[in-house]
Amino acid sequence: MLKVLALLRSSNAFISSSRRCYISHPSKRCCFISTIKMSTEAYQFGPYTIDAKEVFCSTNLSFAMVNLRPVVPGHVLIVPKREVKRVVDLTAEETCDLWLMAQRVGKQLEIYHKASSLTFTIQDGPEAGQTVAHVHIHILPRKSGDFERNDEIYDAIDVKEKELQQKLDLDKERKDRSFEEMTQEADEYRSLFI
What we know:
- By secondary structure, the chain is an alpha+beta fold.
- The protein has helices at 2-10, 92-112, 152-170, 179-190, and strands spanning 13-15, 20-23, 32-35, 43-45, 48-50, 55-58, 62-66, 76-80, 117-121, 137-142.
């Protein structure tokens, strides 16, 4: 917990003993109070219900979950709690909370996976490759040589998204990670934020 407190304090955030996170942003337009909570509630990701065991961090407005079909180790999703199809439809508070969580989660996962960089990506709309009509940020810890060409990661994300969409639409043979694998990974990541 002390490690997380130090990390959050260094990024203009402070968590009190009640896990209330006071986050401020230099623009003053993104000042709000968000509570980091570990809950047993179910979460919605578009039309899909996500078990709380797959979620490793959440605030009042956003949550972080493990990925059903990760492209690299540590590939996770940051999702607003309110179902919003496009980035433009997020409120300023939701946008700020989503990106602050992405920043926090990315930093911890980069350290945890001994990565040297992060890829943050959003597919905003169907023509951009979005298969679940609910805004989400992909975070991928990156290491030297994980792809022959750096931008191949976007093709890999696109392939995984299309495979997932086919599975969901056509109920094809499951090639996903098991629920147990996903909850074990979420447990490991959850310990980074407690």
